[in-house]
Write a structure and sequence with these properties.
With 46 residues, the chain is mostly helical. The chain is built from three helices and no strands. Helix 1 packs across helix 2.
């Protein structure tokens, strides 16, 4: 799964986060998602 930290950080910045905060939160969220055992709808259908 490819998640864009840039897109997430831009959305957070638009909501009032500083650039530094937005980048930090985005990086952490992407790390959590990419390093967990999430199940996708496509996987469940297979």
């Amino acid at each position: 799964m490819s998640t864009s930290t840039l897109a997430i950080s831009r959305r957070l910045a638009a909501k009032g986060f500083t650039e530094s905060q937005a980048e930090g939160v985005a990086e952490e969220l992407v790390d959590i998602v990419e390093n967990s055992d999430l199940v996708t709808k496509d996987f469940l259908r297979a």
